[in-house]
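Agenda item 2: NAP complex prediction
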Amino acid sequence: MQTILIVGATSSIAQACMHEWAQTGQVQRFICIARNPEKLALFTQDFSIRYPKICIDNHSIAFDNLALLRLTMEQCFAQKIDQALLAQGMMFQDERAINLDELTTMINVNMTSTATLLSEIYKYMHLQGTGKIGVIGSVAGDRGRNANYLYGASKAFIATYAEGLQHRAALERSAVTVSLIKPGPTQSEMTKHLIAQGKKLAKVEDVAQQIVNGMQRGKSTIYAPKIWRIIMLIIRHLPFFIFKKINI
Ligand SMILES: NC(=O)c1ccc[n+]([C@@H]2O[C@H](COP(=O)([O-])OP(=O)(O)OC[C@H]3O[C@@H](n4cnc5c(N)ncnc54)[C@H](OP(=O)(O)O)[C@@H]3O)[C@@H](O)[C@H]2O)c1
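Presented output:
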């Protein structure tokens, strides 16, 4: 039976993963971390009714408080943690309109907190001799696009960090696996404006299934849905003289 740590546990994708994991019957405890205690409690109360045999611990933390994030990891790893999913992330509908405070918040949430947590979680899992880490980047990190290159740059940071950590784990012959998750546009709280515009997005349950299966297999990169691996292969390799003419 597994204990699974979920950071950004109020995320639609993270919650769909929790349902997926719960339905395997292999989970005894979720440790949930999110910034908003009321929103988190609302979800975990309902979740506990559906899966009464699974214990849930809730922690609420401001993601710019790196010292508290580190301390919370130390407390969480007082017990063995089998898997950890990092799902916190934010995006702006109009990146060019944001102010300096919003930029700082995005850097803290998407980049600094993620790097800090990845480093701490890897350290503790390596010490315990086992563990699977999943961190949610995005297809937006694969190539800078006019629509969202600030968000894309923050996800490219996560991709490079995860790749470096995978390299470190290999050289240290660690049993810990690090999976970089790259969802395509997915139905969630973050994309509700796109859903309202009638855009066709992936179902969060399908994305969650790919994430849970991919992490279980220790895959280094998980595109979800899988078709995005091919789409991004093409987009990444488009010569710039063609790319610059397409508004994607
Ligand atoms: N949906 C997509 O199309 C898509 C595609 C590619 C990648 N992703 C990535 O997938 C992950 C999960 O996103 P989602 O789609 O599930 O969206 P979501 O439901 O909006 O979840 C975003 C998560 O990040 C947290 N968060 C946002 N701003 C925060 C802040 N300032 N401080 C602390 N936490 C903050 C949210 O907390 P609150 O609930 O308190 O707001 C929530 O837990 C994100 O990393 C996102 O970038 C999503």
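Discussion summary: The first helix runs from residue 12 to 22.
Owner for follow-up: CH.
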